[in-house]
Amino acid sequence: MNAGASFIWRGIGALFVVFLLSPLLLVVLFAFTSRAQSAFPIEALSLRWWREMAAEPEFLPALWNSLVISGTVGIVSAAVGTMAAMGLVRLAPRAARITSALLCVPLMTPPLVLGVSLLGLYAWAHVPMGRLTVVLSHLLFTMPFVVLVIYARLRNFDERVVESARDLGASPVRAFLTVTLPIIRPTVVGAALIAMALSLDDFIITFFTISGGVTLPTFVFGMIRTALTPAANAVGTLILAITIGATLAALWLTRYRD
Amino acid sequence: MQRQAVTLLLLGPAVVILGVLFVLPLGYFLVISFWRVVLFKLKPDATLANYNQVFELHLSTLIFTLELALVVSLLTTTLGFIFAYLIRFKAGRWGPALLFIAMITLFGGYLMKIYSWMTILGITGVLNTALLALGLVAEPLPWLFYNEGAVVVTLVNFLLPITILPIYAAMRGVTNVELEAARDLGAGVWRAFSDILVPRCQAGIAAGFALSFLLASGDYLTPQLVGGKVNMIGVQIAAQFGGIFNWPMGAAMSFVTLACSLGVVAAAMALLALWRPR
Q1: Contact: A23, B217; criterion CB under 8 Å
Q2: Is residue B134 less than 8 Å (CB to CB) from chain A?
Q3: Residue A112 sits at the chain B interface (C-beta within 8 Å)
Q4: Top-level class of domain A53-256
Q5: What is the pLDDT of residues B93-138, one digit of tens each?
Q6: Which architecture, in CATH terms, is B51-273?
């Protein structure tokens, strides 16, 4: 390849990186600047928007709800997803392909349709809406990711170590707890973190299924709708820090360790 | 026998979640799409009035939404293909870093990306203030914001990572040897692209296109926040569950939109399947 072509590819790469990252970087940048407007030039760095965010009466409930909901979703999704992935590896290849595709159908459905149809279901079945309904709804779109990640890991798993444990007299449960689980644990934790990140970031489905409550995304949505206050950047930075932090930990656990 | 029972037990909870939280609500929605609303209460019925109304009142919005989603998903698929190609064949040691950027922008910041484009494109936004400061324009450009272009840019921005990953996953299976062999046998750049790269990545391209088309056609926040008067079918669906309170209508609109979107995706996949090496 000649130098000119390589130069063009470098330019294209830089444009992609700027396009993908700049919206997120600007949110973080403006969370730390002093002006009452999210724009250049930057006059001074300041933490005033963080203080303003913390002073909002809805902030702490939103943070608490977000942590409780996404933590629960992470744990339940990982448990159910791990079971499903272990079921998938026991199926014939064709049946496994069809089942995993079926489990992923909710990902292909617009979140708006999922949100309003879940709202309809809860209203019809008289399920009081709140944190519980949000957790249930989030399982729907986080579980497919967990299943796919853990299924991919289990397919490269050496079954013989479990068989030898069984030959030595371990019960299936004991073989799982002492052999399988320790080996796949980083992947399971990584998948739980991805589920947590997706749950914490979700606005649309939460908005329709939480009734009166707030999470960080619905809280920041209120700020965006009413007035463009840079305090929204501070909340946004918080959301991004948690979701991207969880994603980074997940990538490290699932890819760079095994 | 026992083995099958264990397999079913393991898959059970996941299947129950899919059944109760996906199949059941959509089934209920399908039923109420034939109902009516009388005095803010759902009334069981067997009427096609809602579906008729979707076509009478919202047909132009629906068509516009599908067109816009098509523009968005053609852009994300093309850009996603270029980016995947860059990571796979051109970036060398920078490849993992670029892939990493696509992954971290995948899972986070849906709402914050839309919000950020509001601050970038707005009349007193980042882009306008920067252009003014640089003296490139005399006054802020109003046409950056509250129009179709802003909606397309925002949707492409958050759907691009979702499109890159399946295409890249497919492209990982194409080896340098295959492409070099083709080039050694005299194939030009275009020939290698059209006869090897695209056919080998067909599944990834189809998945990326389908995901971004379906999610774009069902989005409602982007037009609401950066689109101004831009009216997409999602905005109308969401309104049926807010102030208007007409769930049967909203349900009928959801199904018509889903059916039309799946129709477009199926047509696109059929077209893609026609792309074969000469």
Answers
A1: no
A2: no
A3: yes
A4: mainly alpha
A5: 888 889 989 988 887 789 999 999 988 888 778 888 888 888 888 8
A6: Orthogonal Bundle (1.10)
